[in-house]
Specification:
Elements: H1 2-16, H2 20-43, H3 49-65
Helix pairs in contact: 1-2
Length: 66
């Protein structure tokens, strides 16, 4: 929920001298870029493209379990 992140975005914006909207956009772009880089890295370790999605699911399950 974006309202949950607003205080964090506002705090980051104040510290960085940016607007909260600029921080939100930057975070969105960073997440998108990280997703692309993560998929590329995982694709280097799998034999077929379909394996990338399964590897990502496995990774996220492992992270959720902590």
């Amino acid at each position: 929920d974006s309202s949950d992140r607003s205080p964090a975005y506002s705090d980051a914006a104040a510290r960085l001298g940016l607007s909260p909207e600029a921080v939100r956009v930057a975070v969105h772009r960073l997440r998108r870029r990280y997703r692309v880089l993560l998929r590329e890295e995982i694709s280097l370790t799998t034999a077929a493209g379909d394996d990338v999605d399964e590897e990502l699911r496995s990774l996220f399950r492992a992270i959720q379990r902590g």
